[in-house]
Amino acid sequence: MKPSIPKGTRDFSSTEIAKRNYIFQTIKGAFENFGFQPIETPSFENSTTLMGKYGEEGDRLIFKILNSGDYLKKSRQFFTSREK
């Protein structure tokens, strides 16, 4: 099986990353010169916040993380129930 990346994403070459970083550093420097402070925000959002705001076509473009939570819960329950 050939490895692949999720639909709608892509890899960037080292040259593209160098150009991208240069642009981001230039913009970041300009903002800092005017007294702005950097912040970090999450790269994901609750689906209830996004769904319905961009129409039916936009809803299809949203990548949903389905198996959130304690992914080891079932295995722990399986092993603890076998010990009894």
Overview of the structural elements:
- The structure is a single chain.
- The protein has four helices and no strands.
- It has a domain at 45-84.
- It has helices at 14-33, 47-50, 55-60, 73-83.
- It starts with 13 loop residues before the first helix and ends with a helix.
- The longest helix has 20 residues, at 14-33.
- 49% of the residues lie in helices and 0% in strands.
- By secondary structure, the chain is mainly α.
- The radius of gyration is 21 Å and the shape is elongated.
- The relative contact order is 0.07.
Estimated structural class: mainly alpha
Report the count of strand segments.
0
Spatial extent as radius of gyration: 21 Å
Biggest sheet details: none
In short:
By secondary structure, the chain is mostly helical.
List keywords for this structure.
84 residues; mainly alpha; 4 helices
Topology:
Blueprint: H1 14-33, H2 47-50, H3 55-60, H4 73-83
